[in-house]
Amino acid sequence: MSRRLAYRAIDHVVLERGEVAHTWRTERWDSLRLLTPNWQSRLPGFSYAGDDPDGYRTIPEVVAFIEDYARAISAPVRTHTTVTSVRRDDAGYLVRTDRGDWHCATVVLASGACNIARVPAFANQVPPSIACLTSQQYRNPNQLDDGGVLVAGASASGTQIACELARSGRAVVLAVGEHIRAPRMYRGKDLQWWMDAAGVLDERYDQVDDIARVRRVPSLQLAGTPDRSTLDLNALTDLGVTLVGRLAGLVDGKAQFAGSLRNMCALSDLKMGRLLETIDAFARDHGFDGTVEPPHRLPPTRVADDPPLIMDLAKGNKSDKSNKSNKSDKSNIRTKSNIRTIIWCTGYRPDYTWLEIPVLDHKGMIRHDGGITASPGLYLMGTPFMRRRKSTLIDGAGDDARELSAHLASYIGDRVPRPSALARAR
Hints:
Layout: H1 2-7, E1 14-15, H2 22-26, H3 59-72, E2 77-78, E3 83-89, E4 92-97, E5 100-104, E6 107-109, E7 116-117, E8 131-134, E9 148-152, H4 156-167, E10 172-176, E11 185-186, E12 189-190, H5 191-197, H6 211-214, H7 233-238, E13 242-245, E14 247-251, E15 254-257, H8 261-285, E16 310-312, E17 339-344, E18 348-349, E19 368-369, E20 372-373, E21 378-380, H9 394-413, E22 422-424
Parallel strand pairs: 1-2, 6-21, 8-17, 9-10, 9-17, 10-13
Antiparallel strand pairs: 3-4, 4-5, 5-22, 7-18, 11-12, 14-15, 15-16, 19-20
């Protein structure tokens, strides 16, 4: 957005509470790589220039990329400046920070959608002997106490963390809810290449039937590994990970898992099949069939005949033999996992506690129309499917910023006299 505003000669400033790429520095696990190939990190006037376009950036490489971009466009970033409130005033908006106040005609909220980890309310029922972390807090297996790990959530973060922990030799139980299975490579090309070429990632928010539902869809089960392998539930099962249903509750130290594991996996397989059918149709209609590998499908997700429904965290994870009705219940987990840690990979939510403008819905999310809020001059950037399916990807920021900056410039142009977009008052 800063690049687009500079191109339009609109005065502005970028306020950052930490350093450039702050969350990439402080809220990611050590081995994480981007889910998108290097070539797909395309920003206005800036793109990948290395010798591994099909590789996946490590976290230090992501930080360096964003730092390099900020320098290349001479972005007017004020680091270590925490915004404490944003409210309306006579000039438009008053932005208060711990380093002074700013008056401005417009504000772009680019604080992201992943500020606070979502943890279920029943997490406070976890026995005190069990350590709890979120995916924001997890760094590597050595950080954890000895013993098994229950990973709650099986989208991109949950599957990657479960894989790393299993490879480290730990017993891992993965609680699986709604997820989207996907192959890393398909017909000889990266899945992201196909989604980009076929226009899947360019699908607009005003082209879908239920945008609220689509914005809640979890991320693809993808991992950016050097060997470009597919990471799905079958791969995790092969590593010895125990699959259970969604973690639905905790009562008296017993974890309760939903009985929908088989249905969730079947639905995920169905969604994957629909995506691959879209790609196959594109390949056929655009002459790729003769130049790429033929269509293929992954084997169905394997699910145990009787997925466990209960785990007694307070008693070393053995089934509750004190309850006679459970003595022959195969739905109880009987493993040697001895869970000592739970890692919550159950998603994130934004933090708008500092926003003093009535644009939030009952769930604390900003109401907007493709990034344009009901408060004139207030815009949003970087949230799921904001204007396009790729809005949360680095590759999606440029298109969204181009369109929103045009709207912002038009809004400023309608004001008389024209003020700076963001001018420091004191």
